[in-house]
Design a protein that fits this description.
This protein has about 170 residues and is mainly α. It is built from 5 helices and no strands. Helix 2 (about 20-45) runs antiparallel to helix 3 (about 45-100). It starts with a helix and ends with a helix.
């Protein structure tokens, strides 16, 4: 019993539904249903039937949600296993290809044919520049256009001043 309570308190800080948390939830809902049954027998009130139905729906939905989370975790684990297997097979295929292509007399130096994946120098130059200015405007300083005929002071006070001057 002591380990269950310890597991219950540690499961509070564990993401997702844990076994001890689900057991405690199911025990609490079962006790609540029992209390509603006893109160229904003692009072014959329809309210306890309605509360019992609401409690049962919530109990079912919590268990359904926990099952869906477990299914999603299982599917995610299967996907990760498939990816790991694919990586291993790709790695082994790459190793086999590299051992087949490399002969003992090959020193590993570049051949005359060069690389088929070469990038033109212009494209490299454009990618390596870390500026937000267009290529033709490098070094130029441009002044921003103003939004109106004012000197850049756009406020309601200056607009009201203009209205007052127009009235007089």
């Amino acid at each position: 019993m002591a380990t269950f309570i310890t597991d219950l308190f540690t499961s509070i800080f564990t993401p997702g539904p844990t076994h001890s948390l689900l057991v405690a939830t199911n025990a609490s809902f079962a006790a609540l249903q029992l209390v509603f049954l006893v109160l229904l027998i003692l009072t014959y009130s329809i309210h306890f039937v309605i509360l019992s139905a609401l409690c049962g729906g919530l109990w079912w939905s919590i268990n359904w949600f926990a099952a869906e989370l477990e299914t999603a975790k299982r599917i995610e684990r299967e996907k990760e296993k498939k990816k790991e297997v694919e990586r291993e097979t790709e790695q082994s295929d790459t190793d086999e290809r590299s051992t087949r292509e490399k002969s003992p007399e090959d020193s590993g130096a570049e051949t005359e044919g060069g690389d088929d994946n070469q990038v033109p120098a212009e494209q490299i130059r454009r990618v390596n520049t870390a500026t937000l200015q267009p290529e033709d405007a490098e070094g130029e300083i441009r002044k921003r256009r103003s939004l109106g005929s004012s000197t850049g002071d756009i406020s309601t006070d200056s607009e009201w001043d203009k209205v007052e001057q127009a009235d007089t």
